[in-house]
Each structure stands twice: as C-alpha cells, then as structure tokens.
C-alpha cells in the first residue's frame, strides 16, 4: 500500500472524529475507499478499549486524606518527649468491648478543663488514629469521642476505639461512663455505645470494672465481657475476636445484632440519615458480614432482603419501609 | 440540601473552604478524570491515586485557587501533567491492565478474538508518543472538540490536527501485522 501523506492522515482523522468537531465533514475524496475503511476499522477498534468507572469510595478516601492533612496540626500536640525507654516495647492487642451509656454523660464538660486536655471528635463517616502523650496509639471509629490529658494515662471514651497501650508501670485506664478499663500494656477494643460497654482483649490482660458497683472482671487474650448500665460486667467469655475488630479493616460484622443497631452502625460508618417511615424492626436481628468495598446500597439491599424492608434514597437520606 | 452552584460561585465557595461545594466539584468531574487518567496510565490504582492527588492539591491550596478559564480545562490539564509525570517516574511495565475482557472457561472463538484485538489496539495506543497519545485519548474517549483540546493543552488547533493524524498513522503501522492476518 502506498504511503499516504501526513496531511491526508490529518484530514482522515478529522473526518473520523467529526462527531465532536463538525458532523457534516465529508470524507476526503482523494483517499481510496480501502484506506478509509481500514482507518475507520482502527478508529472503531480503539473504541473497544473501555475505561472502568471510578470506585464509589473514591470520595470517602479523598475525604480521609483531606481531613488527615488538616487534623495533624490540631491533634498532635507538642508533647513531652518520650521517656527514656527501657528496651523496645511490644504492643499487645487486646480487644475490650465495653458498652457504655452513649451521649448522656457530659461530665467532662462539668469538670474544669485541665491544662493540656485534648478532645478528639471523630464524626460519622470517618475513622481516626491518634498518638497519645505516653506513646500509646488509639484507632477511633466513626461517631466517637476521646478525651485525654497530658501527663496522665487516663482517657475517656464515648463510642468505639481500639487501643494499643505502651507498657508502663503506671496503669492506663479508659473510662466509658460507669465502666472503667484498666490495663498495664496491651491492645484492646472498647465499644461504648448506648447503654452497653463491650471490651475484647487480643493480647495481655485487662480489667473491666463498674465504678458504681465496684465489681471487676479480669480479661485475658481472646476474652470478652459486657457491661450494661447499672450492672456488673459479665464474666469473661471466650470469643472469636475477629468480628469485634472488623471495623478497623472497614468490614461490618453483625451477629444476631438487633436491626436498629445495624442501622446505627450504618449511619455512623456512611454518615447518612435514615427515616423509618412505617418500618418496625421489632426484635429482628441480623447475622451477616460485609467486606470493606461494599457500597451502602449493596448492604441495604442485603439487609432488606432479610428484614423485609425497602429502601429509597433521596438527597443523602434513606427512607426505610 | 444546597442547590447546585454555578461555576464562579462554586470556585468561590471552595476557596472559602466549603466542603460540600468541593464535593460537588468532585462529583462533577472525578469520574471523567479517572477514566481519562486510566487511558493514560492503564492502572486503576494509579488512576485513583492521581485523581485524588489533583483534588487534594486543590483543597490544600484552596485559599488561593483561581483557575484561569473553565474548570474542566484546568482539571484535564492538571490530569495530563500529573499522568505524564507519573509515567516518567514509572517505567514501561506500568501498562499491566488491559481493558474490560470477556472471560470464561469456554469463551467462544469470536470473543477470544475480540479480547485479543482489544489487547492489541490497547498496546498500540500505549505505544504512541506521550503528547500524541494525550490528544488522541481526549478526542476518542472524552469526545473533546479539537478546539477544546487545543485550549486545554494550550497548543494550536493545527497541532491537534497534526497529532491526530500522526496517531492514526502510527496506529495503522502498529496494527498492520494484525490487520493483514484477518484479511
């Protein structure tokens, strides 16, 4: 085949892309049909390469980065330099689930603010990791609040967080309403939502006590205890801690979880609002687990299949009936 | 919720730090940008990272953000620059991903052929020189007019025409062996 001149190709290209340029461009008349057909074929073939759509979570992930860029200055105070250490510390993961009275307690506002007090607010739709003055690290789940003080190993929690506590002679304690979790050096999960505190331990030992009643429960690795408001903590139970820590990977795990609680979790994780038109979940529970990449719509679809509801979205709010 | 904002107000709101306005901008352009970037870098992960980089940079410098001309042109120009920088720093074995494939244990012969054809054209497009490829992608996949391409990339329309012709010529050369086979 003879080599067409460059300008011929330019004109053919213009013709082939005419849809966007000038729809009425006629094909160049000095070009043999065979050539034109061949190039049309190439043009069409190129169209078969289809780009995928962006993942739906891209906005959320971007939001995380946007906030991370801003949080850092606020949440990392200039703290005392780390104490001269004994040999390298090891983190033990403990999962403590503590059920706590949610939202009602505002006693730390009543307390006079001490110098060097930091309040970390994690909104719905976010999670945040904070390094404490003593070197401990806390991962905080959506819709939670953590308060800590400089020079102290006492923190207060509303919501849910996973603690990796640096071992030290001074005990580290987490107060969640009536519940107090005391540890020496471990990593554990405290879930303080509504009127129940759940504590799960992965490594090490933790003690969970009711400050009002004074009862204490010691928890070892793989154990869990629950505490309802006004009650003593339950005796240690061995559990599969995986599902209590699923939130750290962005997974949602429900096991005989009341539907209302399921919707609370979704509300916090995705930062949406649910309107329950005439849907009464009653005593129904859900047992299911959802991978981190599942969209809210996919999850609602699955839930409504089981719970017998329908959902409709409008403007960021979901109607459930 | 707030009604959608027009472009100049949108920009102004973003400068003031209005996250909802920023989200609106994101919703308007992120998918297009992602797909454009994918054509350039052929990796979903990279396309996502680069898309986020572009928006993150706007957010970080939002107080002084003042794009000259339409926002779309600004974004695609930023995307092109980001992509070319990325490609420069990441060597050829970057083109791992092939577009949508039909797969299956017993893919019928013509589907297999189609998959191969798609992979072949994709490789040929990937081999186009950077500037030429950018112009081609904008025209073929974003359906951009020559005038828009010229404005976005800040080149002349004549250059756009020339790059398109070049793309066609190079693609034909690259595909020649395959096309001959099927004739």
Give the amount of beta strand of chain A, in percent.
25-35%
Report the CATH C-level class of the largest domain in chain B.
Answer: Mainly Alpha
Report the major sheet of chain B. none
CATH class of the largest domain in chain A: Mainly Beta
CATH topology of the largest domain in chain A: Jelly Rolls
Mean pLDDT of chain A: 78
Alpha carbon gyration radius of chain B = 19 Å
Name given to the CATH architecture of the largest domain in chain A = Sandwich
Please state the oligomeric state of the protein chains shown.
Answer: heterodimer
Biggest interchain interface, per-side counts: A-B, 40 and 48 residues
- Distance from N terminus to C terminus of chain A (CA atoms, Å) equals 68 Å
Instruction: Report the CATH superfamily of the largest domain in chain B.
Output: RNA polymerase sigma factor, region 2, helix turn helix motif
Low-confidence segments of chain A, ≥5 residues, pLDDT <50?
Answer: 72-114
């Amino acid at each position: 085949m003879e080599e067409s001149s460059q300008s011929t190709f330019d004109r053919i290209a213009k013709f082939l892309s005419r849809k966007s340029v000038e729809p009425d461009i006629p094909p160049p008349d000095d070009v043999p049909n065979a050539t034109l057909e061949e190039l049309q074929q190439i043009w069409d073939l190129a169209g078969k390469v289809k780009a995928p759509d962006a993942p739906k979570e891209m906005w959320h992930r971007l939001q995380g980065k946007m906030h991370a860029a801003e949080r850092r200055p606020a949440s990392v105070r200039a703290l005392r330099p780390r104490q001269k250490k004994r040999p390298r510390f090891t983190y033990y993961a403990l999962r403590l689930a503590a059920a706590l009275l949610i939202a009602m307690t505002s006693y730390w506002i009543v307390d006079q603010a001490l110098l060097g007090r930091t309040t970390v607010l994690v909104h719905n739709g976010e999670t945040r990791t904070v390094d404490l003055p003593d070197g401990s690290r806390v991962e905080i789940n959506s819709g939670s609040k953590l308060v800590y003080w400089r020079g102290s190993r006492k923190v207060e929690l509303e919501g849910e967080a996973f603690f990796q506590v640096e071992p030290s002679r001074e005990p580290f304690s987490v107060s969640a309403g009536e519940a107090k979790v005391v540890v020496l050096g471990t990593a554990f999960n405290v879930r303080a939502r509504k009127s129940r505190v759940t504590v799960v331990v992965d490594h090490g030992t933790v003690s969970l006590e009711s400050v009002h009643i004074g009862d204490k429960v010691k928890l070892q690795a793989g154990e869990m205890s629950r505490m309802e408001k006004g009650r003593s903590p339950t005796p240690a139970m061995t559990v599969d801690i995986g599902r209590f820590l699923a939130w750290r990977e962005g997974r949602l795990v429900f096991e005989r979880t009341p539907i209302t609680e399921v919707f609370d979790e979704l509300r916090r994780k995705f930062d949406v609002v649910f309107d329950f038109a005439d849907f009464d979940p009653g005593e129904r529970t859900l047992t299911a687990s959802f991978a981190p990449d599942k969209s809210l719509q996919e999850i609602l679809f699955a839930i409504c299949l089981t719970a017998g509801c329908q959902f409709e979205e409008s403007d960021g709010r979901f109607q459930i009936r | 919720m707030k009604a959608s904002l027009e472009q100049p107000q949108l920009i102004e709101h973003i400068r003031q730090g209005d996250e909802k306005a920023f989200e609106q901008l994101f919703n308007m352009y992120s998918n297009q940008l992602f797909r454009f970037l994918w054509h350039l870098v052929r990796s979903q992960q990279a396309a996502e990272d680069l898309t986020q980089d572009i928006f993150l940079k706007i957010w970080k410098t939002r107080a002084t953000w003042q794009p000259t001309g339409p926002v779309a042109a600004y974004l695609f120009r930023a995307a092109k620059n980001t992509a070319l920088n990325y490609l420069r720093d990441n060597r050829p074995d970057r083109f791992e991903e092939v577009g949508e494939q039909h797969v299956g244990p017993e893919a019928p012969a013509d589907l297999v052929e189609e998959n191969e054809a798609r992979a072949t054209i994709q490789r040929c497009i990937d081999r186009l020189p950077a500037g030429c490829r950018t112009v081609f992608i904008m025209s073929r996949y974003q359906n951009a007019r020559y005038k828009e391409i010229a404005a976005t990339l800040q080149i002349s329309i004549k250059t756009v025409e020339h790059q398109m012709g070049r793309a066609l010529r190079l693609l034909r050369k690259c595909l020649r062996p395959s096309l001959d086979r099927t004739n």
